[in-house]
């Protein structure tokens, strides 16, 4: 007795069953892929979290709101200790360059610097705003030095400076980011410009050396922390 002939209904049934098997197989593959992908994501998050914790614990940042643990060492120093050693050497252009060590430790105590105005050394954790800021009263050296570390040029003057020169330099500072200006009664000359490790006495606001100093030292190569903020610090 022979087998029953295959009908069209049987073909359809077989085809449907084959499609179901294929669908079940596809779903299994998708589940496997989803599990693998999830494992990869979880592993990535775990690695990223470890890296972030490491960066936050081992690295530092320099902001006005968090105590300023910048790339240089933080901590304390004895009152009056700038951590500086060395002396100025005057170049042919009249710029005095500090030859020696300029410390960069954050301190909260007053600091006595070996040069006036100071051009570097231990300084307050909070920088003085230096985004073209003009101060009409003397500022704290410890905050101004931090601004120099960020690449600012500091214009200072005494009561012997001509009123017209003070006004002209103030106008220049106001339109120049990474600069600041303040009176400095104790300095040796009526008009002086300072940057990290560099200082210049100028005759007047019209002295061509003013523009040269700005062009060279505003965010210049001497800057220990190029690109660091000149806002968000102290106003005075």
TrEMBL record:
Residues 1-27, 57-93 are annotated as: Disordered. The keyword Membrane applies. InterPro entries: DUF3105. Keywords: Membrane, Transmembrane, Transmembrane helix. The keyword Hydrolase does not apply. Residues 9-25 have a biased composition (Basic and acidic residues). Residues 66-86 have a biased composition (Low complexity). The chain crosses the membrane at residues 32-53. This is DUF3105 domain-containing protein.
């Amino acid at each position: 007795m022979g087998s029953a002939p295959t009908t069209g209904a049987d073909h359809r049934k077989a085809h449907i069953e084959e499609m179901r098997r294929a669908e079940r197989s596809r779903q299994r593959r998708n589940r496997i892929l989803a599990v693998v992908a999830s494992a990869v994501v979880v592993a990535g998050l775990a690695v990223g979290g470890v890296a972030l914790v490491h960066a936050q614990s081992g690295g530092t940042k320099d902001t006005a709101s968090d105590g300023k643990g910048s790339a240089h060492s933080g901590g304390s120093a004895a009152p009056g200790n700038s951590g500086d050693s060395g002396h100025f050497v005057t170049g042919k252009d009249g710029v005095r360059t500090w030859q020696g060590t300029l410390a960069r430790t954050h301190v909260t105590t007053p600091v006595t610097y070996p040069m006036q105005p100071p051009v570097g050394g231990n300084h307050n954790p909070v920088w003085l705003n230096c985004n073209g800021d003009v101060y009409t009263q003397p500022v704290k050296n410890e905050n101004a030095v931090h601004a120099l570390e960020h690449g600012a040029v500091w214009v200072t003057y005494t009561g012997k400076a001509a009123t017209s020169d003070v006004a002209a330099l103030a106008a220049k500072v106001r339109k120049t980011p990474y600069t600041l200006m303040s009176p400095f009664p104790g300095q040796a000359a009526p008009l002086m410009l300072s940057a990290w490790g560099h200082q210049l006495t100028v005759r007047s606001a019209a002295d061509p050396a003013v523009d040269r100093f700005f062009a060279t030292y505003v965010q210049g190569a001497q800057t220990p922390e190029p690109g660091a903020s000149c806002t968000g610090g102290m106003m005075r």
